[in-house]
Write a structure and sequence with these properties.
37% helix, D-Maltodextrin-Binding Protein, domain 2, globular, 2 domains, 10-stranded mixed sheet, 15 helices, 3-stranded mixed sheet, alpha/beta, 420 residues
């Protein structure tokens, strides 16, 4: 709830005690309204009102009011004050009423709403927006999310603050957004982990993945690179598979996200090898251990992996897309390297809001995401990591999410990954 959804009215005096009417859309908003009443800037102007008893009313049709307060001037005359969110008087109107005092606050409120244009709702957005990235700083989700947030800020005219909440394959960050107020001021930089695969990887989620979010806009996708530590005796993916077959269970692989886990398990299943998973909280941490030799293999997005492959710190073996990537054309696809036909796994990114976010706000966010996706800056910045943008509507993202959820459920089942 925002301050603009509040109206206050003084309904009459009883001796030295004023009666205060609190008007809101929902009863659960009363505690917040009463905290607003005790704010210094309001109390300083209306000491007698704040000290008085509180009457509570619901008026669901309110939408453009900050505060409306009544002062009974006597003789059936009431002054209606229109106030801003800080208690500053924007203007007033004087009306004479011949009705019972108990209903004067309703008449004055109507006069203020219909007779003046002072209390106008502030257009969205009127304060900074928080974009939750459910993975660690430095990850592909973080890099892409921050770049989009900066461009979206230009379109929306408000700062978008990125908040990293990594953990449990993105579940912690997604949960925070699922439980946030559906007012457009908290959004999720979602992925195939948070919005497609988690329900198949976890026995129980703290939210309903299918209904907890309002789709906003698809951002784009990136393939992954299969790489090994430089000391692993394999120059190609075929040699790596042969090595793993010679030592069942001896080969270790890192994972810090759903795409990393599933891509590796899919590879193991389709190649007929056994590997041991070593989970990490973040992709950069897993990369550090791959370089150091604590794990042998790691499949990760281009943002995390490509700089290390290009720098010679790890050895790239293949890409997880169906075709070679222009960003690293020397690496074959997994299908090409192993003679397979059906191996493909890409990571995607999309913006979601809490379920119940108003359609007009979703539309504004969608336009901002699409403008960012179409910007030359974004496309040039992420072309080297194989990022392919694909602007679209909220409805298109909703349909994609359904298809991706089914796709990932099958991939997880085929890889024989048990829910945790």
């Amino acid at each position: 709830m925002q301050i603009r959804d509040i109206a206050l009215a003084r309904s009459g005096d009883k001796g030295n005690r004023a009666t205060l009417s609190v008007i809101a859309r929902d009863p659960k908003d009363y505690p917040l309204l009463e905290r607003v009443l005790t704010a210094d800037r309001v109390r300083a102007h209306y000491q007698d009102v704040v000290r008085g008893p509180v009457q509570r009313y619901l008026l669901p049709q309110l939408g453009a009011v900050h505060f409306v307060m009544n002062d009974a001037l006597g003789g059936g005359v009431t002054r209606s004050l229109a106030l801003d969110a800080h208690g500053k008087t924007l203007g007033f109107a004087i009306r004479r009423f011949r009705m019972r005092p108990a209903f004067r606050w309703i008449a004055a409120l109507s006069a203020a709403l219909l007779g003046t244009s002072l209390a106008v709702a502030q257009p969205y957005p009127n304060k900074p927006i928080k974009a939750v990235v459910p993975f660690a700083a430095g990850s592909a989700t973080d890099q892409i999310g921050r770049a989009f947030a900066a461009k979206m800020s230009e379109t929306l005219g408000q700062t978008i603050v990125v908040d990293n909440k990594p953990g449990v394959n993105g579940m912690l960050g997604a949960d925070a957004v699922a439980k946030a107020a559906p007012d457009g001021y908290t959004i999720l930089i979602g992925t195939n982990s948070t919005n497609a695969a988690l329900k198949s990887l976890m026995k129980k989620l703290p939210y309903d993945q299918d209904t907890a979010f309002a789709p906003v806009a698809y951002m784009g996708s990136v393939p992954l690179i299969v790489a090994v530590n430089n000391d692993v005796p394999a120059k190609t993916l075929k040699e790596f598979v042969d090595f793993a077959k010679s030592k069942p269970g001896h080969v270790t692989f890192a994972s810090a996200s759903t795409s990393q886990l599933v891509s590796s398990e899919m590879l193991a299943g389709m190649a007929g090898i056994q590997m041991t998973n070593v989970p990490y909280k973040s992709g950069p941490a897993a990369m550090t251990d791959l370089i150091g030799g604590q794990v042998m293999m790691f499949t990760a997005d281009f943002a995390v992996m490509l700089p290390q492959v290009k720098g010679g710190k790890v050895r790239g073996l293949a890409v997880t897309s169906t075709k070679r990537s222009p960003a690293v054309p020397e690496l074959p696809s997994v299908n090409e390297a192993l003679g397979l036909k059906d191996y493909e796994l890409i990571a995607y990114f999309a913006v979601f809001a809490p379920a119940g976010t108003p359609p007009d706000i979703v539309a504004k966010l969608n336009a901002a995401v699409n403008a960012a996706a179409q910007s030359k800056d974004i496309q040039e910045k992420f072309a080297p990591i194989g990022f392919a943008v694909e602007p679209g509507t909220p409805e298109a993202l909703a349909q994609r999410s359904k298809l991706e959820t089914a796709k990932w459920a099958k991939a997880i089942k085929d890889a024989k990954i048990e829910p945790q």
